[in-house]
């Protein structure tokens, strides 16, 4: 440092000391006190400066501490936001294991827990509310009043346990599988229809709410008393008191209670017990997105869709839904590294299923890996959607395929869960579907339905191709109606074509406000009414269900 600067700094410091001393002397004079000796004044001043310096350092340290805490708060806020996002996005699945007594629920629960924990899932297992109560000393009911009280208690306890498990699962921020030993609707199998309605009214709930809006899948493990009688035992459950006949009846009533759920899967005793458990695991794998081989969906052509009166006459119970199926844009890309020459294609569709005022939504994806050798392997992944997710995906609809509308009726016949598809616009054709373990397994067909033949391998009856045919028919009819409308309006100075009819949900034709608006609305209504009828009439004739008219 230059000498001049050192001298100047010393002068400034000396000046400050003199000024401070002068201030002290003036203070003493103001108070009428004699000034202190210079050396004392200097010592006091030195202490003053040292205290100020200590305070300055303390304030600086406090400032650094505050800044550090601010950084910690910012980091904590970021982590909380990240945790909230993880909690919101982490998938959670609720699966009910149900069925008649001695169906294998305990073993299945242990196998499923081990399997999905190894895949990184947090698996939360719910206990059966009834077993919890009976094991705690609650007596079996002896009259209607005590039976109603017990069922109401079981229902409330069951739902409370489920809600707590769901809260824990969502707070974890991890993919979660909640595995329940029976569900809220199981109680319906233990009371009469009248008692069940009284119970629901008392707790302000509905069957549809409990069945369709609480659980992602229902796995019904058929009692060993039906098909594996030699393995039926009361020894492994102290609360089990049913005879084989009573167990079979309880199994049937439980199936009836859950009939109509979007994902009700029946796992019967047609195979070994180990294979039975494997089939249950495979069902859940498909639900949560873990690849699992597809079960074979077998399709059968009916000569005509049965009437509601016929279903009511021949079935103890069935549930009907209005379903809209929309295919989304498909994708194809090279397989991941390590599989040269292989391609992976994805086919997507979304479904809207409505029963009365209750609506549910679903996304299905088929992933097909085509190997260089020509072999193909397909897996299906399913996911339940909320309304917002459904309408967002609907914007990705395949423009080359129309939405298919149908009435879906679900029912139990034998030990199988059947789905009857009656397409809107089809007068003579309906498709009966059932999931089977193999093409050769024996099926017990509903005897009142006019089955023509199996069409599992006939692409003509594939919904993906039917949606394409519908779009072609719509395009053809649009051209014809547009030409007709142009000709009718040529004298009025307008040749605007009619709008495209609603082919997806939420798309409605504009409200007519003039002559052209009226023609447009009429054209859209005509197309909507006839597009499926034309396609299905062609399908009916080509399949041989109805014969051609003379002269055709």
From TrEMBL:
Residues 485-519 are annotated as: Disordered. Signal peptide: none annotated. InterPro entries: NadR/Ttd14_AAA_dom, P-loop_NTPase, TRPL-trafficking_regulator. Residues 94-276 form the NadR/Ttd14 AAA domain. Keywords: Coiled coil. CDD domains: NK. The keyword Coiled coil applies. Residues 45-79 form a coiled coil. It comes from the Eukaryota. GO terms for molecular function: GTP binding; phosphatidic acid binding; phosphatidylinositol binding. PANTHER family: TRPL TRANSLOCATION DEFECT PROTEIN 14. This is Aaa domain protein. It comes from Chrysochromulina tobinii. The lineage of its organism: Eukaryota, Haptista, Haptophyta, Prymnesiophyceae, Prymnesiales.
């Amino acid at each position: 440092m230059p000498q001049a600067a050192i001298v100047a700094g010393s002068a400034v410091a000396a000046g400050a000391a003199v000024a401070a001393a002068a201030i002290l002397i003036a203070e003493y004079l103001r108070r009428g006190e004699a000034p202190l000796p210079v050396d004392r004044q200097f010592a006091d001043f030195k202490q003053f400066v040292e205290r100020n310096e200590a305070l300055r350092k303390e304030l600086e340290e406090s400032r650094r501490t505050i800044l550090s805490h601010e950084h910690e708060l910012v980091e904590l806020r970021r982590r909380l936001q990240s945790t909230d996002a993880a909690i919101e996005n982490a998938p959670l699945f609720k699966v009910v294991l149900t069925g008649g007594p001695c169906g294998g629920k305990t073993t299945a629960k242990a196998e499923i827990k081990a399997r999905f924990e190894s895949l990184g899932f947090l698996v939360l297992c719910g206990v059966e509310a009834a077993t919890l109560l009976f094991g705690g000393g609650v007596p079996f009911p002896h009259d209607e009043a005590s039976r109603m009280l017990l069922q109401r208690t079981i229902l409330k306890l069951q739902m409370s346990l489920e809600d707590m498990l769901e809260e824990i699962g969502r707070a974890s921020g991890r993919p979660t599988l909640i595995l329940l030993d029976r569900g809220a609707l199981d109680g319906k199998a233990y009371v009469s229809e009248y008692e069940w309605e009284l119970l629901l009214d008392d707790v302000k709930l509905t069957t549809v709410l409990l069945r369709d809006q609480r659980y992602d899948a229902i796995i019904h493990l058929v009692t060993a008393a039906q098909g594996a009688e030699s393995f039926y035992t009361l020894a492994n459950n102290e609360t089990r008191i049913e005879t084989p006949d009573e167990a079979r009846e309880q199994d049937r009533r439980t199936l009836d209670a859950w009939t109509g759920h979007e994902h009700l899967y029946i796992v019967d005793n047609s195979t070994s017990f180990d294979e039975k458990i494997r089939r249950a695991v495979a069902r859940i794998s498909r639900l949560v997105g873990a690849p699992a081989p597809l079960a074979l969906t077998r399709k059968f052509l009916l000569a005509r869709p049965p009437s509601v009166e016929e279903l009511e006459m021949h079935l103890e119970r069935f549930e009907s839904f209005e379903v809209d199926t929309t295919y989304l844009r498909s994708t194809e890309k090279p397989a991941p590294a390590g599989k040269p020459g292989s391609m992976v294609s994805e086919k997507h569709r979304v479904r809207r299923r409505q029963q009365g005022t209750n609506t549910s939504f679903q996304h299905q994806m088929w992933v097909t890996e085509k190997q260089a050798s020509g072999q193909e392997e397909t897996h299906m992944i399913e996911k339940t959607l909320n309304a917002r997710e459904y309408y967002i995906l609907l914007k990705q609809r395949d423009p080359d395929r129309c939405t298919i509308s149908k009435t879906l009726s679900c029912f139990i016949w034998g030990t199988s869960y059947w789905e009857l598809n009656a397409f809107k616009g089809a007068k003579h054709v309906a498709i009966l579907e059932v999931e089977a373990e193999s093409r050769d397994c024996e099926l017990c067909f509903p005897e009142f339905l006019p089955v023509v033949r199996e069409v599992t391998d006939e692409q003509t009856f594939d919904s993906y191709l039917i949606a394409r045919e519908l779009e072609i028919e719509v395009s053809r009819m649009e051209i014809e109606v547009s030409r007709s409308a142009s000709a009718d309006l040529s004298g009025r100075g307008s040749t605007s074509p009619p709008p495209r009819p609603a082919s997806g949900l939420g798309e409605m034709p504009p409200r007519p406000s003039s002559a052209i608006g009226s023609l447009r609305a009429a054209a859209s209504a005509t197309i909507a009414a006839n597009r499926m009828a034309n396609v299905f009439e062609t399908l009916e004739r080509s399949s041989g269900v109805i014969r051609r008219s003379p002269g055709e």
